[in-house]
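Below: protein 1.
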Amino acid sequence: MKLGFNQATTLENSNLATDLELCEKHGYDYIEIRTMDKLPEYLKQYSLEQLSSYFQEHHIKPFALNALVYFNNRSEEDYQQLINEFKQMLEYAKELQVPYIVAVPLVTKEKIPKKDIKESSVAVLHELAELAEPYGIKLAVEFVGHPECTINTFEQAYDIVQTVDNPNVGLVLDCFHFHAMNSSIEALKQADISKVFILHMDDTEDFPTGSLVDEDRVWPGHGAIDLEGILTVLKEKGFDGPVTVELFRPEYYEMKAEDVIRKAKETTKEVITKYL
């Protein structure tokens, strides 16, 4: 099983150049690059060509650009900006040979009917997939386990992806988000596992459904998520994709980045080697 690192895990105590050096040192196979902050920060000092060369010369490889945010139910003006942003991400992904772009649904306090959410999401994903096809890049939709996210359960996200019915459009299964809004293990058992493109590994403090936020995440295996249940199903269904650790814990940001990267790998491997 290949192991990936999501930069959210060292969001406030590192940068892309440092993350690459430390992930290479500690034997990670992949990195998910944050395009909203860490990549622009990197490009103020280095070039995209230098980043591409780094990946060519080292073991660690880019796995996903994370993320195209709030892709559905946007105004016409906002949507055009989104498309422009996506086109730029496609160029980055082409240069760096990144296979996936993560797409995050709209988070809003506005109440939007589920049929309107689905209609918008399906239409947008069709267009994004059409733009991405010449690049050979796939889209991974990441539902967010919070009441204010328009797509907040595995079941809802899977239904949308199935309706899109494009082999280049699938899902991010983040264990935290799966747990946070009580997504169903039974639904996961019934799913076509080839639609799960990316697996995010994490854990969380034991707070009620609907109240969890990213900052509640803890080291894998140190919290309340039924990781055994999720990973057992994935094993039974033959999932063999990389596992990426993604944490947003404020107290981990106070640690040295290398200590976080080392600990994240140790705890993730301890959990996943039992199942995958």
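Below: protein 2.
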Amino acid sequence: MSWEPGFRFTWNDFRGAAPITSRAAATTASGITYRFTTFYENNELQVDYKVFAYFYPTKSWYKPELCNDVTLLHEQLHFDITELYARKLRKQLAETKFTKNVKEEIRKIYKATIRQLNDYQNRYDSETNYSRNLPVQERWVQEIEEALREY
């Protein structure tokens, strides 16, 4: 599923099997994909790209006995953060003057964005204590909503 404004998870979206050994209550599997083409216009290299934030239902799971509405909101924000970084990637690609090494240049920008995304997702989990710190969870909701409006 690709990210859409106004889309909100329900637990029915989490179709994967919860690993017995995991201590987590839920996991949102999401990621960023891209594709691009190049062409020349007026002897200048042009790059046409598409960037998407995706949610993977069959790789996402939850343990009903450990989850509530706050947990679902926490998981939604993981997907929203993925979209935020997809937008950051689009912006960086739009601002880059590519050379004939465009494939490698895009790959490098993508990898750096994914590292930043993973760091940010980990910070989110850490600061909110995986949704258990309700005031901090609410602050993150506000910050991500504002950040999505900016991009």
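Residues 11-150 form one domain.
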